[in-house]
Amino acid sequence: MNQGTVKFSFNNEKPNQTRDIILKVYEALAEKGYNPINQIVGYIMSGDPTYITSHKNARSLISRVERDEIMEELLRFYLDQHST
Asked: Which of 50, 52, 59, 71 is 20–30 Å from 33 (CA)?
């Protein structure tokens, strides 16, 4: 049994694309009166696209990126904001 650390990586060729999609989806959810954070977390946790509104093509946009890419972008942004 391997007890070592498993390395997780993927190739995100367009890091700015993921960020732009997150921001556009956030905006569309807010415009429709949803709590964008709750809806995006629901989508990330479940993979169910119905957490995302179809307003402004947000559901289609978010399906262009993998959920792990969304998580990586969110974590990178958070840590960049809180690192010294």
From this structure: 71
36-46 vs 67-82: helix crossing angle, rounded to 10? 130
pLDDT at 60: 97
List of E strands, the chain = none
Nearest CA to 13 among 65, 52, 84?
65
Hey, how many other C-beta atoms are within 10 angstroms of the C-beta on 83?
6
- Those residues of the chain that have pLDDT short of 70 are 1-2, 5-15, 84
Q: Return all residues near 25 (Cβ < 8 A) that are at least 6 apart.
A: 36, 40, 52, 58, 61, 62
- Residue 69, token pair as written in the block: 């890419």
Quote the tokens at residue 6: 């498993």
Distance CA 9, CA 12 (A): 9
